[in-house]
Amino acid sequence: MSRDKRILFAVLGWGLGHATRSIPLIRELSEKHRLIIASSGVALRLLQDEFPDLDAVEFPDYDIYYPNNKHLVIPSLGLQLPKILVQLFREFRLTQKLVSKYHIQRIISDCCYGVFSTQVPCFFITHQLRFMLTGLLRCLVIPSEWFNRYMFRHYKRIIVPDTIQPNNLAGSLAHSGSIATHPKLFYLGILSSVQKQALNEDIDILFSVSGPEKQRTRFEKLILNQLPHVPGKKVVVLGKPGGSASGEKQKDTIKFNYADRQLMNELMNRAKLIVCRPGYSTVMELVALNKSALFIPTPGQAEQEYLGRYYQQTGLFQVANQNHLDLPNVIGKIRQNACTTLPDVVVNDTSKFLRLIA
């Protein structure tokens, strides 16, 4: 690909995960080409903070509602499907305008299904070739593959941020079913916005609180209530974008309302153990840093619950149920056991990515 291509890089705005994993790709591309980044909500704010000199476009926010009852999460998403489809159509219309306005020559979409054009080569990034569904909706797993096959027609290549089996991180999300043999698939290796640093591991436990409201607030209260009973030096990041990034110290604990990527990179490198949600982007960061972790899946989020079971079975990470969480007990057991060696995988192979989209 010649220099100075005009590239539209769109990132799904559901949380921060898609934005953080796109950072190494955006950074590499921005050194050689003109990039226009597009996203919504906190994801867009994060990307604007990381790349203040790049043109940024705000996409429509999906504004997805997550109920408190975990058994209602999947049905609730089903009821919101018409709203999601409307947003996809809005994404598509806006994309056509951007292609015309900026004379776009490449489109890269991280899970934005409405971002494509028949006028330029398009590339799609996803770790979910099939959607994990639970209960009565489990019968829709195969139809979700059909949906992806239909949507993949619009893209030249489907880029999966994972390694090929056996040392893969996505499990059945990206390596099972007939869609795993799709001819457009390309397994790039994992992506991580954090990098290993030569720092002392002087933090015993780092707690990273995240997830959609109201589950994030519930997770925060659960952690803070049990924190006094967990020995050692602890740091808590509450995941409240826009809040103060200065730490509040209380005895053996430092609490941050928010940590930017630079601070989070430092804290993760200094931590001996990290307690967090098993979001896929977080998993990739932990493997890149070779860090031990205790995962607490968000109740009702089928993907996190599946990944939790998968890592428990493979022995990569420890997992606990939020509804029956006993932090002092489970962390005590983790400290008694030897650390598991994480797989040695390719991280941030941006040169291969550049060749792929050329």
TrEMBL record:
Single GO molecular function: hexosyltransferase activity
Domain annotation Glycosyl transferase family 28 C-terminal: ranges: 253-340
Protein name: Glycosyl transferase family 28 C-terminal domain-containing protein
Organism: marine metagenome
